[in-house]
Automatic annotation (TrEMBL), chains A, B:
Official protein name in the record: tryptophan synthase
Cofactor: pyridoxal 5'-phosphate
Keywords on record: Amino-acid biosynthesis, Aromatic amino acid biosynthesis, Lyase, Pyridoxal phosphate, Tryptophan biosynthesis
GO molecular function, one term: tryptophan synthase activity
Enzyme class: lyase
Organism name: Youngiibacter multivorans
Protein's pathway: Amino-acid biosynthesis; L-tryptophan biosynthesis; L-tryptophan from chorismate: step 5/5
Catalytic reaction equation(s): (1S,2R)-1-C-(indol-3-yl)glycerol 3-phosphate + L-serine = D-glyceraldehyde 3-phosphate + L-tryptophan + H2O
Enzyme Commission number(s) from the entry: 4.2.1.20
Length: 456, 456
C-alpha cells in the first residue's frame, strides 16, 4: 500500500474507461417516465426529438453495469481530470475530531464544478449526431458555464436560460458563458410562450430551475435540428457523473481507505449520485455497508419534506412525468444563495434509493452552511461554493459526533465546486445580513397542490 | 523515461525541499539597495524594522544556491502544490504549429495565482518572529488574496492597500480578502499622510502599485511590532517563487522535456524570476542555452522602454533606492486590465539579467492579449488572468514563428493565474470596447524626470 499523500492524484492511466450504471444492480428500478397525455411509459422514440439519441439510450439502459466512455470525451476529461481526493487534515485538526475526513474536489476547472463531466459527454454526443444547436437552463450558473465551455470546445452553438435571481446575484457568470460564446437569457424571459405566461402570472418572480427548463425545452422543440440538454436529475447525467465516484473508488482501493459514510449535497442529485453510484453498487451486492447521506437546503427540502410522486420536471409542465421526491412543480423556492440546489424535484435514481432506505437525508439553513464554509475556506485554503458547503456541513456534523463518541470514522464528502462567482453571497454573510428561509407547512401544501393527481 | 501525460503532476515526495537562490551563481550581482539619505548600501539592520528578519537575511544572501524550505511552509504548499505542468495539445492543434507548447499552471488555488508561494513563506516567518500584524499593497488583488489566505491560516492580522482602479474593476476581490479576515483600503486612501498628499496633488487618480506600497509602508512603520510584506520585485520574493521553476525542472527531467525557450509575463518580475531561476542557473553554468523572454504590457513597458537606474520602489519615495529598470516612480500607468503588471519598476535580479543579455523582453497591447486569452480559454479550458495572458501571447508568437520556419521548438510558459475575478475585463473585451494605451515618449520623459539624479 502506498503512503497516503495530502492530495491523491491518480495517473491518467488510472482514469475510468467506463461510466458506472447503478441501475444494472439495483434490486428495484425507478419507475419509468410517463407520457403526460397517455400516462403510458415513454418510449425511446418519444424522447429522441428532445434529447440526443445516445443519451436516450443511456437513460433507458438498465442492464449494462459499465458503459464505455468515448475517446472524444476522455480527451476532454484529460484537460481537468483526474480530480484530487484530499485528506482534510487541517479541518480535522480545527474540529479536534478523531475522524478521518476526505473530500473529492471537483472545483479545479474553469466552470468551477463537477458539471463539466456531463457537459462534455452531452455535447460530444450532440456533435456526433450532427445536432446544430443546443439549449439549456442554469441555476447557479455552474451548469451553464460548463456547457458553454464544452460547446466552445466541440463547436456547437448554445442558448442558456439562466434563473433570473441567479443572473442578478452572479452577473459575472453571464460574462463567463459569453466569453465561451453562449447566448444567455434571464429566465423567465419574454422569448418563449411559457416565459411570457409565467411573467404574466407572477411579474416579480426571480424564476426557478423548473421555469428555466420549460423555456429551454420550448426553444429546443421549436427549432430545427436542435436538442435540449439537462445538467442534473436524469439518469444519463448521473451516469456521466460516476466518473467522480469511480476515481474516488480507485483512489480508496489504492491507498486502503475505507469510507464509513459518504456525504454529498443534493439539488437535482447528479453530483451525489455520481459520487456514490459505484459504492452503492457494492453495498447492494453486500460488499460494503457504507452509509450515504444527502444534505439539502432547508429552503428547498425535496427529500426531507417532499412527496414521492409522479410530477413534472419543470414549472411549465412540458416534461414527461417523473416519479421522484418533489415539492410540486409549482413550488417557488425562496431566495437562497445555493442556486444550484433550488429545484423542486430530485433525481429518480436518488429518489428510489432514498425511498428504499439506502440513503438518508438531512436539511440545513444557509447561515449554518456559510459558518462552516468560512471555517473550511480558512483552514483548507479552498473557497467552497454555497452548494458544496452543504456537504461540508454534513461532514462537520458527522465529525463532531465522532468527537463526542470517540469513534475514528472515515468520512468522505464531495466538494463539488468553488465559490469564486458567489462573492455576493459571501458579502451577504460577512456583513451579517444573511437570512434563512424555511417554507411553512402551508407553503409546502401550496406546492403539493400542483402535483398532478394521476392515481399513482 | 515515463510516458508524457496531458498534465504532469509530481508526487508530494518530488516537491522541492529548498528554494533556488540564483544570485549564488550569477557572474555579476545586482547592485545593493542604497539608503536614500546617505546613498550608502543599506545594511540588514536598517532593513529589519521594515521586513521580517529572516526575509532580510534571504534578501542579502548571495552565497547559498539552495535555501531550505521550512516544514511549516511545506505544510501550506501541500494544500495546493505541486502544480501541474501541462502540454497544450489543443493550442498546438489550433495554431497548426510544429512546436511543442507546455505551461506551468499556478492558478489552481483559491487566490488564483502563484502569489501564494511567497505569501505562505512570508507570513510563516512573521509568525515565527512574533510579529503581531502585517500590511501590504495589492494591484490586481491576487497578492492581497494570497496574503489574506496565508494570514488566516497562520493567524496574523492584515491590512491591505488595494490600488483604487483595481478595487473598482474587481469588487469581489475585496470580498474574497474580507472572507479571509483582511481589512481592505482603496489606495490612495485618507488613512495615511502619503495617501492624503497624493490625493491632494492628483484628486482623480486611480492609484498605482507604487502609491499603495507607500501607504502600506507608512502604516507598518507607524505601528508597534508590525511589518510590511511585498508580493513581488524583491529578491526574497523571487526566491520563494522558485518553487515554480524547481517543480518545472523536476518534471522536465523526469519526462525528458528540453525547453528551447521559457516565457513569462513581467510586472514586478516574481513569477518570471521564480520560473526561470533554476534554468538560468543552468545556463550561467553552461549546462543549457535556453532563451528567456519576458512579456510586458505596452502600457507599462519598464524593460523595453525604461531606464536602468537607481530609483524608489514606491511613489511616496519611502523605499530604499533600488537599481532596476524603471519608468520613474512618478510614472502613472494608464488604465489596463492587467493590474498586476502596472508597476513602474522591475525586480533587480531580472533587471540585472536583462541588462547582461540573459533575458530578452517584448511588449504587447492588451487587446491582442485578450485575443489569445479568448482562444486559449476555449481550446485549453482554462480562463486565464489578463496578466498571465501576456505570457500566452508570447508563446503563441513563438509557436507561429515555428509554423513559418517548420522548427519543432519546445516552448514553455508560465500560466500564473486564472481570470475569475477579471470578468469586467472580459466583459469589456467581449463588447468590443477595449482600448489600448501606449505612453508617448513625452509621457515617458515625465516619468523619467522623477528618477533621482544620484550620479549613478
Amino acid at each position: 500500500m502506498e503512503k497516503i499523500p495530502y492530495k491523491i492524484y491518480l495517473s491518467e492511466d488510472e482514469m475510468p474507461k467506463s461510466w458506472y450504471n447503478v441501475k444494472a444492480v439495483m434490486k428495484e428500478l425507478p419507475d419509468p417516465f410517463l407520457h403526460p397525455g397517455t400516462l403510458q411509459p415513454m418510449t425511446a422514440d418519444e424522447l429522441k426529438p428532445i434529447f440526443c439519441d445516445e443519451l436516450v439510450d443511456q437513460e433507458m439502459n438498465t442492464k449494462d453495469e459499465f458503459i464505455p466512455i468515448p475517446e472524444g470525451v476522455t480527451d476532454y476529461y484529460r484537460m481537468y481530470r483526474p480530480s484530487p481526493l484530499v485528506r482534510a487534515y487541517n479541518l480535522e485538526k480545527q474540529l479536534g475530531t478523531p475522524a478521518k475526513i476526505y473530500f473529492k474536489f471537483e472545483g479545479n476547472n474553469t466552470s468551477g464544478s463537477h458539471k463539466l463531466n456531463s457537459a462534455a459527454a452531452q455535447v460530444y454526443y450532440a456533435k456526433q449526431q450532427g445536432i446544430e444547436s443546443l439549449t439549456t437552463e442554469t441555476g447557479a450558473g455552474q451548469w451553464g458555464s460548463a456547457l458553454s465551455m464544452a460547446c466552445a470546445y466541440y463547436g456547437v452553438p448554445l442558448d442558456v436560460f439562466m434563473v433570473k435571481i441567479s443572473s442578478e446575484q452572479k452577473p459575472y457568470r453571464k460574462v463567463l458563458m459569453e466569453t465561451y460564446g453562449a447566448k444567455v437569457h434571464a429566465s423567465p424571459s419574454t422569448e418563449t410562450a411559457v416565459g411570457r405566461r409565467i411573467l404574466e402570472e407572477n411579474p416579480g418572480t426571480g424564476g426557478s430551475l423548473g421555469c428555466a427548463i420549460s423555456e429551454a425545452l420550448e426553444t429546443a422543440m421549436s427549432r430545427k435540428n436542435c436538442r435540449y440538454v439537462l445538467g442534473s436529475v436524469l439518469d444519463h447525467v448521473i451516469l456521466h457523473q460516476t466518473v467522480i465516484g469511480l476515481e474516488t473508488q480507485t483512489a480508496c482501493e489504492k491507498y486502503g481507505i475505507k469510507p464509513d459514510v459518504i456525504i454529498g449535497c443534493v439539488g437535482g442529485g447528479s453530483n451525489f449520485g455520481g459520487l456514490i453510484a459505484p459504492f452503492m453498487g457494492g453495498r447492494i451486492k453486500g460488499e460494503n455497508s457504507i452509509e450515504f447521506v444527502g444534505i439539502e437546503p432547508a429552503s428547498c427540502p425535496s427529500l426531507t419534506r417532499g412527496r414521492y410522486a409522479y410530477d413534472f420536471g419543470d414549472t411549465g409542465k412540458m416534461t414527461p412525468l417523473i416519479r421522484m421526491y418533489t415539492l410540486g412543480s409549482g413550488f417557488m423556492p425562496s431566495p437562497n444563495h445555493a442556486g444550484g440546489l433550488r429545484y423542486h424535484g430530485m433525481s429518480p435514481i436518488i429518489s428510489k434509493l432514498f425511498h428504499d432506505g439506502y440513503i438518508t437525508a438531512r436539511s440545513v439553513e444557509q447561515s449554518k452552511v456559510f459558518d462552516v464554509a468560512s471555517i473550511f475556506a480558512k483552514c483548507e485554503g479552498i473557497l467552497p461554493a454555497p452548494e458544496s458547503s452543504h456537504a461540508i456541513y454534513g461532514a462537520v456534523e458527522e465529525a463532531l459526533k465522532c468527537k463526542e463518541t470517540g469513534e475514528e470514522k472515515t468520512i468522505l464528502f464531495g466538494l463539488t465546486g468553488t465559490g469564486y462567482f458567489d462573492m455576493t453571497a459571501y458579502m451577504n454573510y460577512n456583513s451579517g445580513n444573511m437570512v434563512d428561509h424555511i417554507p411553512t407547512d402551508e407553503d409546502l401544501e401550496k406546492g403539493f397542490a400542483t402535483i398532478p393527481d394521476i392515481g399513482k
